[in-house]
From TrEMBL:
InterPro entries: HcaT-like, MFS_assoc_dom, MFS_dom, MFS_trans_sf. One of its GO terms (cellular component) is plasma membrane. This is Permease. Keywords: Cell inner membrane, Cell membrane, Membrane, Transmembrane, Transmembrane helix, Transport. The chain crosses the membrane at residues 12-34, 46-65, 77-99, 105-125, 137-157, 163-182, 203-220, 240-260, 267-287, 293-315, 327-347, 359-380. It comes from Paenibacillus apis. Gene3D superfamilies: MFS general substrate transporter like domains. Residues 144-403 form the Major facilitator superfamily (MFS) profile domain. It is a multi-pass membrane protein. It is found in: Cell inner membrane. PANTHER family: 3-PHENYLPROPIONIC ACID TRANSPORTER-RELATED, BLL5896 PROTEIN.
Length: 403
């Protein structure tokens, strides 16, 4: 039965489009803001690492708050308002110690916006009998648009105005949120008892280990790509073009895999994606100009695009619905939180000590390690295990069957 509001999907698409503008700023232009304040590569790496560390706690706390108070919309309003306030404070800060404190609080509000947005989108898509990708893809389009728009805007205003641009985009997202339909609970509650059931599955453990290795390489690139471009003489608008090239390239891959991806098994696709990541980072290490790196960014579609859709598909296959939130939480820790903390902390020191070429060769090594892990599992894997649903879930499923 479809009881969705016809305007709900367009509003969520607009919201996804907008919030990825703040993602562009945090990923690409915050490091330039720090560099403009005179911070070293190690300091920039530390500031980047704070985000993944805070996200582990922030995602859990805000998820609990959302469940306790039976609202996602109101939590989202608080998060966006917090982003705006902390951006205003950061715009007035120049001391490294002060920025460490302020950016920590900023991240506490910033990171939970995305999993809660996914929750809204998944629920709305289910009610409207649509694919989640039809909403999520507008995030990629928004990322592409804002990457270029913000690049040109900051090339005119200067990187010192980065936080004011953040305030503007978060403010637009806040206005859109006011008109969105609220939802009372997440798709699936976090089940702490489910962690042990998940971690007993050898294939899942292997999968998370490979994801973690690949994620270290990816987060190293995320943290220092714009710094690399800046060192090669790229302006803010050229950096925008590099982000546009990567984000737009993933759109057709998302669409193709959502239609035809099921015809190819997951592990061969993950092996391919890991090889593409390794190739991408190798080419960045060899690049002589910012233009070369922009061209390399088009490999984002064959690396991240293939990996993201396939990894979510594999996780969905291996983890039943009752443990979806737990499985996604563990995946997020491996892909974003723990890997970002490690790569940001040690990546900054590696970049400073060894230079760009060796830094990216280290990233190549981690991507190849993940590729070997996926390949070895593909070769030696036995029957595909899945976690058996709890008896209560089995009984509920039986009740849903037609008589």
């Amino acid at each position: 039965m479809n009881n969705s509001d016809p305007s709900e999907i367009p509003r969520l698409r607009a919201f996804n489009f907008t919030i990825f503008g703040t993602s562009v700023l945090v990923a690409s232009y915050f490091p330039l803001f720090y560099a403009g304040l005179g911070f070293s590569k190690s300091q920039i790496g530390l500031l980047y690492a704070l985000g993944p560390m805070i996200s582990i706690v922030a995602n859990l706390l805000w998820s609990i708050a959302s469940d306790k108070f039976r609202t996602i919309k109101k939590i989202m309003l608080i998060l966006l308002l917090g982003e705006i306030i902390m951006s205003a404070v950061l715009s007035l800060s120049t001391s490294f110690s002060v920025i460490v404190l302020m950016i920590t609080i900023f991240y506490f509000f910033f990171y939970p916006v995305f999993p809660l947005s996914d929750t809204l989108a998944i629920n709305a898509a289910k009610r409207a009998n649509k694919s989640f990708i039809t909403i999520r893809i507008f995030g990629s389009i928004g990322y592409a648009f804002f990457a270029l728009f913000i690049g040109y805007l900051l090339s005119f205003l200067g990187s010192s105005r980065t936080m004011w641009v953040t305030i503007g985009i978060a403010g637009i997202a806040l206005l859109i949120t006011l008109f969105m339909k609220d939802q009372s609970a997440p798709v699936a509650k976090m089940d702490m008892s489910g962690i042990w059931r998940i971690l007993k599955q050898k294939e899942l453990l292997w999968f998370f280990g490979c994801v973690f290795s690949l994620a270290i390489a990816v987060r190293m690139n995320d943290a220092f790509l714009t710094v690399t471009l800046n060192d090669l003489g790229a302006s803010e608008d050229m950096i925008g073009w590099s982000q546009l090239a990567s984000s737009l390239s993933e759109v057709p891959i998302f669409l193709l895999l959502s239609i035809y991806g099921e015809k190819i098994k997951e592990l061969p696709l993950l092996i391919f994606a890991s090889l593409m990541f390794a190739t991408r980072f190798l080419l960045v290490s060899l690049a002589d100009s910012a233009l070369d790196i922009i061209l390399v960014q088009t490999l984002h579609s064959l690396s991240f695009g293939v990996f993201y859709v396939t990894s979510i598909r594999m996780l969905t296959r291996l983890v039943p619905d009752e443990y979806r939130a737990t499985g996604m939480a563990l995946f997020t820790i491996a892909w974003s939180s723990a890997s970002g903390l490690l790569s940001g902390t040690f990546g900054g020191m590696a970049f400073e000590q060894f230079g760009r070429e060796r830094f990216y060769m280290i990233a190549v090594g981690f991507a190849l390690l993940a590729c070997i892990g996926f390949a070895s599992r593909y070769i030696i894997r036995g029957p595909r295990p899945t976690i058996a649903p709890a008896p209560a879930v089995q009984e509920a499923a039986r009740k849903d069957l037609p008589e």
